[in-house]
Amino acid sequence: MEIRIGMINTSREIGLETSSSVAEVEALVADALTGKTPLLKLSDEKGKVYLVSSANIAFVEVGSDQSRRVGFVG
Q: Is the pLDDT reported for residue 66 higher than 70?
């Protein structure tokens, strides 16, 4: 699943692919945005860990669990 995180005061976004479920990611984001945790901690499929200050998050876009279809559209 693809996740994009927009940051305040910057035009760049953080993008990552994760094997976590939508529900798991939504719970982590909700905890960060409500102030329960000062950091949003996510890991990607390659094992990299992303720590994002919850005070600097502008938006979080969570993709679907469906995999991309491969082939030609006709």
A: no
- Three-state secondary structure readout of 24-62: HHHHHHHHHHCCCCCEEEEECCCCCEEEEEHHHEEEEEE
CA distance 57 to 64: 20
Report which of 10, 25, 11, 6 is spatially closest to residue 65, judged by C-alpha positions: 25
Map out the domains of the chain as residue ranges.
2-62
Q: Note the pTM of the prediction, 2 decimals.
A: 0.80
Which tokens belong to 10?
Answer: 């910057």
pLDDT tens digits for range 19-44: 999 999 999 999 999 999 999 999 99
